[in-house]
Amino acid sequence: MTRSKGMGSLKPVLFTLPAMIPFAVFWLAPLLYVFYLSFTEWDFMNPEKTFVGFSNYTDLLSNPAFYKALRVTLLFCAGSVIPVILIGLCLALLMNVRLKGSALYQVLLFSPWVTPTVAVSIVWSWIYEPEVGLANTVLSWVGLAPIGWLQDPKWALVGVLLVTVWKSVGWAMIFYLVALRNVPSDLLEAAGLDGANPWQKFIRVTLPLISPTTLFLFIVQVIGALQAYDQINVLTQGGPSGSTRTLLYMYYQSAFESFQIGEASSVAMILVCGCMLLSLLSLEVSRRTSHY
Amino acid sequence: MLVLRQFGKVARPLFFAALALLMAFPFYWMVTSALKTNDEIWQSPPTLWPQDPLWGNFAAAWNEAPFFRYMGNSIFVAGSIVLLQVINSGMMAYALTHMKFRLKGLFAGIILFGYMVPATAVYLPGYLVLSELHLLDSYAGLILSNCVSVFSIFLIRQAFIQVPHELVEAGEADGASHMRILWTLLVPVTRSSFAVLALITFIDQYNNYFWPMLITKDPNLQLVSAGLRSFFVEGGAYGLKWPLIMAASAFTIAPLLLVFAIAQKTIMQSVNMTAGSSKG
């Protein structure tokens, strides 16, 4: 009797092991390990890791390259997240009526999201070709000078951002379409009876009701932007002269190109902290806004 | 006002038609560039449709690098990951929603914590862990290191919460084991969530680039994104063979567009579920 009871409490744990073992091996252990490595100096080859305390962090904070990467990261976040959310919302508002062929439009707008970033980035690198690429050809049609899309430090980030935004707007639009369909129409009618014009209805009724979706998209997009790698790797490799090197790209380069494991680990910890802060913030906000 | 509405009736479809064309244009450009000769692709101004479409470019690109192998690798690895995630997410979500045990809160907390940690940030130590386990350069490494997903667990948990607990209790009263209840009662009821899990995970893993590229150096194990990228850099020599590069990109993308075309409804439905599961 006692034995079967013991088995009873073991069973649930057995059910969780197929997920928890790989999770511990490939997520938790690496996370603890990177935390430890951020306090050491190591070059991959040397069998010894030297414990150096906080010096990786203090070195980083006095390194201009870190601030440049931080600046690029923030620009990348702002430049991808804000357009994706705004354009996605505008498109969803325009599509939220009876529109012939809207299913087809949704599929076409959504398809960049489904396709491999590497493959579409290669296509875009052809579009950005300086001499005969489509982007500069179109500019010449409207009488503008050609742009060194991926070669000019002033434009390279814009070039990478265009691809990133192109990839995600359709995805954001679908989220907003679902949210807009869930806005109760009697609320909008009631506001109309109270004399609200369409703009006021949008600001006072629709926007607050779809705010959970906005929050979700914001968090997911920011975390995605912090992790962006594929398009940067194909289009610019962080260049020219660091103009597209984000913190994640810097982490990759110091880990796998210059083998400064300690420095790389401290950059990784900063990224982890940033993401956790954002996620906690989103949980807190969604807890507060879930009342209505 | 009426005029404006009439205008909207005409303008809106026109706007969306133009926008959809614009969004899809890179794909069109990819396919038409794949059919051009190298001279034509460098012509200015560019031609919208090749003078003489060279369908043979697709075969040439296919044979120039082991794309059959790359795509086979991607499909095999992504498929295996889907299977493992269905199993472990199902079991984990079942334990979290329909079983009582002491460590439940702790496990749920750990999973939530995992949701907040960006996967890319732990690639370096993950690489070291894999190397300790002698799993670098192996299918096992590619598959096992991706076989749990916090997103999948959340998605299935969200679906299982909505199944009334009486169903599980009835199963228990009939003497069915937990395994049986899970796979013959709960999974069929929540199959649309599992379909979403399978599709999203497959697409994600087929497209995966950074991590597989880090942990495999053996060209025979390359997944399709990494294979395409090395074809772009080496075989294509940055512009000498643009038509072939475009052809290769096209057949890399094709299986996903096909999956998307077939399972479009399920993928769109995933939006509803993802937004739901994010609320925890």
From TrEMBL, chain A:
Principal subcellular localization: membrane
Similarity comment: family membership: Belongs to the binding-protein-dependent transport system permease family.
Name by which UniProt lists this protein: ABC transporter
Sequence intervals crossing the membrane: 12-36, 72-95, 107-127, 157-179, 264-283
Species of origin: Paenibacillus donghaensis
GO cellular component: plasma membrane
GO terms of biological process kind: transmembrane transport
Domain ABC transmembrane type-1 span(s) in chain numbering: 70-282
Topology class, membrane: Multi-pass membrane protein
Subcellular location: Cell membrane
Keyword set, alphabetical order: Cell membrane, Membrane, Transmembrane, Transmembrane helix, Transport
TrEMBL record, chain B:
The UniProt record lists the keyword Transmembrane: yes
Localization per Swiss-Prot or TrEMBL: Cell membrane
CDD domains, per the entry: TM_PBP2 (cd06261)
Transmembrane segments: 12-31, 75-94, 106-127, 139-160, 181-203, 242-263
Coiled-coil segments on the chain, per record: none
One biological process term in Gene Ontology: transmembrane transport
Limits of the ABC transmembrane type-1 domain: 71-263
Keyword vocabulary terms for this entry: Cell membrane, Membrane, Transmembrane, Transmembrane helix, Transport
Membrane topology: Multi-pass membrane protein
Family annotation (InterPro entries): MetI-like (IPR000515), MetI-like_sf (IPR035906)
GO CC field: plasma membrane
Family: Belongs to the binding-protein-dependent transport system permease family.
Name of the protein: ABC transporter permease
Lineage of producing organism: Bacteria, Bacillati, Bacillota, Bacilli, Bacillales
